[in-house]
Amino acid sequence: MHDTQHERPSRSFVDDDPLQALLGAGEQLKPQHDVQINARIVQEVVQTARIKPRWSKSKIAGAMVAAALLIGAPTVAVAGGYMAQTGWFGAAPGGEAPEGTVSTETDDSEWIDTGASDFVDYAAAQWPDYLELPEGLDSEGLARHLAVTFQQNVPGAITQRTTLVTIDEMATRTLWQAEWVDAYEAGDVNRQSQAVDMLQKSVEWPATVSSDGGGVVDHMHDVNDAARRGDVDVVREDLAQSTDADILREAARR
Q1: Cα–Cα–Cα angle for 122, 134, 191, nearest 5°?
Q2: Nearest partner of 111 among 98, 123, 128, judged by Cα
Q3: What is the side-by-side strand order in the sheet with 110-113?
Q4: Which residue, of 68, 70, 81, 161, has the fewest CB within 10 Å?
Q5: Does residue 56 sit in helix, strand or coil?
């Protein structure tokens, strides 16, 4: 059992625009191909989310950062759980966000410490049972890959559990879009149909729906409709603005 009295150092405040803050963090990453490309997943997540209105109509890929809003606060271990769990739910930890800290709306999920030694284990364990990957892919390796990538982009900060689940949902959707494109190019009607069915389900995945700041789910419907009628150009364009599906596939085969 973890020591409930132990406190780690306070997390630094984020007093900059949330999108630029995460993009800036990404620029400091080591120039490794998989990390650089999959950092987009972190950026994409926020496009749906508790974002300032000026971001809600931005491009689908590139505006998703504010959902990972970082609030400065000390983290305390939750008895019987992970060190990454703060025990804070809903409103910003400690009450109102500190002066000069960027703040967004919150849901009622727990705030999670990305700097905790067991953050990757915690985040990977949050993979939802309702997320099914294309044949031949496994969620375990992918979940850990996404958790590591997220931690590398926002080290030593806290974010809500909903953000972590949204990352999983968006990565899964990307893989099903890639599956549809592959099936279209191979002329495999059955695989196309299965991919369309899964993409349609994705518009109802809870984290994506709950964090939609305006227009994202509608856009997903539009792309799904294009896949249903066989408009590969629309699907390819949307996929091109997302993270690299080949990197995600590689992670899901580990």
Answers
A1: 160
A2: 123
A3: 85-89, 110-113, 158-160
A4: 81
A5: coil
Q: Which tokens sit at 226?
A: 């294009």
Separation CA 128–CA 137 (nearest Å):
15
Tokens coding 127? 């993979």
The tens digit of pLDDT for each residue in 82-126 reads 999 988 887 655 555 433 333 345 678 888 999 999 999 999 999
Nearest-angstrom CA–CA distance, 137 and 81: 29
Q: Which residues contact 7 (CB under 8 A, 6 or more apart)?
A: 74, 75, 76
| Total Cβ atoms within 10 A of residue 57 | 12
**If DSSP codes are grouped into helix, strand and coil, which group holds residue 72?**
coil
231-242 pLDDT, tens per residue? 999 999 999 988
Residue type, 229: R
Q: What single DSSP character describes residue 111?
A: E
Q: Which helix (H) or strand (E) holds 213?
A: none
DSSP 74: -
Structure token pair of residue 195: 């991919």
Question: Following CA atoms 136, 164, 217, 179 in sequence, which dihedral angle do they give, to the nearest 10 degrees?
Answer: -10
| AA letter at 165 | V
Least Cα distance to 156 among 11, 29, 17, 22 occurs for 11
Q: Where are the domains of the chain?
A: 18-252
Residues 6+ apart with CB under 8 A from 184: 192, 230, 232, 235
Query: Dihedrals φ, ψ of 129, to 5°?
Result: -65, -25
**pLDDT for 67:** 39
Angle at 92 between CA 169 and CA 60, to 5 degrees: 35
User: In this structure, how many other beta carbons lie within 10 angstroms of the beta carbon of residue 194?
Assistant: 17
